[in-house]
Amino acid sequence: MRSPVVCSPLAGRILAFSDVMPELQLTHTKDREEHNLPRNDTECQSMREGLERLPRMKHRPGTELRFSHIPKQTYPEGATPAQITQYSMDLSYALDCLLESHYRQEPLHVLGELQFAFLGEIPPDFFVDIVSQDNFLTSTLQDFFQFATSPGVDGTLRKRAEKFKAHLTKKFRWSFEVDPEESDPVVVELPEGVTLE
């Protein structure tokens, strides 16, 4: 898939956390005084003051993910008011511009970028059902993987499903193994002398 390569930071590595640095290097108390900021060696009088003392952070250059630029103007130059309304509702013009500027050769790769953005940002507990504390997605995927890896399925699909399963297992530590107690038939031992008619 091309999208993760396109989205990769210039530094060449995608980190599990944002690599940030302070906007201003305020190493010493005199540096803070030069910027009219309160000294760090005095007690804060409020939560707001405490938050204002924290350094303003920015991404370290070259470490941010590089997603495709989505145009701010969502309609073409010279569009009529009706066209502006239409393009602003469905954003088709913005999508066309995005595809033309970044994905002319392979327009379906924009889906890869969307998947990359989605999988990279969701926390592991995102799919947990708050009421039951069960992960509704894992049970659905468990059924899918059980079907997709069965003997009668096309080999390419089976390999992709196994690779996807391995990825999800590694990233979210989900188990897709079927509990034998849930799926196997139950064998009941009859007491001695009892027969079924």
List the helices and strands and how they pair.
Elements: H1 3-7, E1 20-22, H2 29-34, H3 47-53, E2 57-59, H4 81-90, H5 92-102, H6 109-121, H7 136-148, H8 155-172, H9 180-183
Antiparallel strand pairs: 1-2
How many angstroms does the end-to-end distance come to?
Answer: 61 Å
Q: Which sheet architecture does the biggest sheet show?
A: 2 strands, antiparallel
- The helix tally amounts to 9
User: Helical content, roughly?
Assistant: 40-55%
Unreliable stretches (pLDDT < 50, length at least 5) are: none
Shape: extended
Percent of residues in β-strands: under 5%
Q: Rg from C-alpha positions?
A: 27 Å
Physical arrangement of strands within the biggest beta sheet: 1-2
Classification by helices and strands: mainly alpha
Estimate the mean pLDDT confidence: 77
Instruction: Tell me the number of strands.
Output: 2
What is the chain-wise order of helices and strands? HEHHEHHHHHH
Domain AAR2 C-terminal: 67-119
Protein name: AAR2 C-terminal domain-containing protein
Organism: Synaphobranchus kaupii
Pfam families: AAR2
In brief:
It is built from nine helices and two strands. It is mainly alpha-helical.
Could you explain the architecture of this structure?
InterPro entries: AAR2 (IPR007946), AAR2_C (IPR033648), AAR2_C_sf (IPR038514). This is AAR2 C-terminal domain-containing protein. One of its GO terms (biological process) is spliceosomal tri-snRNP complex assembly. The chain has helices at residues 3-7, 29-34, 47-53, 81-90, 92-102, 109-121, 136-148, 155-172, 180-183, and strands at residues 20-22, 57-59. The longest helix is centred in the last third of the chain and has 18 residues, at 155-172. The protein contains nine helices and two strands; from the N terminus they run αβααβαααααα. The radius of gyration is 27 Å and the shape is extended. The chain is mainly alpha-helical and 197 residues long. It has a two-stranded antiparallel sheet with strand order 1-2. Helices cover 44% and strands 3% of the residues. The N and C termini lie far apart (61 Å). Among the domains are: 1-39 and 54-68, no CATH class; 123-185, no CATH class.
